[in-house]
Amino acid sequence: MTTNEPRPVTVRRVRADEWREVKELRLAALQDPVAHLAFLETHDEAAAKPDGFWRGRAEGAASGGPVAQYVAVDDDGRWLGTVTGLLEEPGQDSALGGAVQRRQVHLVGVFVRPEARGAGILQRLFAAAQGWGREQGVELARLCVHVDNSRARAAYLKAGFAPSGTTFTLDAGEELEMVRPL
């Protein structure tokens, strides 16, 4: 393999004992230049959380319950990206406010390290999370993106998501819902 060829990457579900890796990747995501638009917490807020929080987060994402976190891992064991699927049921409160109207998988915490972007990792992460959603009987995936986060919007369009027409305002400004049939 030449140095210009992409390294092998495995996309898989997080395991319960991988809380340190979950924490490290989240903190890396929160240092991205557009983190203030993409995530609902700051690096300092996340870094201040105790280890028990991160243990619980990994356990919950690995448990087979309504949350599933997927990661892209290279052959050296380095985590390159992640996405988390939240199973939403009609009548529940959405993670971003408002009532859920239909059974769906809400994709959150989307991040690919800058040096791994452009290699199809995001599409593979989405495929894994959407496959999990289909296994749950869901027919629609959704995600939300800040209107000023053009890089993320372009990546989501490339991955087959389209604006639903729904917008809402969070502390960081206007968000756009994007959806994709499964």
From TrEMBL:
InterPro entries on file: Acyl_CoA_acyltransferase, GNAT_dom, YpeA/RimI_acetyltransf
Keyword presence, Metal-binding: no
Keywords attached to this entry: Acyltransferase, Transferase
Pfam families registered for this protein in UniProt: Acetyltransf_1 (PF00583)
Gene3D superfamilies named in the record: 3.40.630.30
Domain N-acetyltransferase: 9-182
Protein name: GNAT family N-acetyltransferase
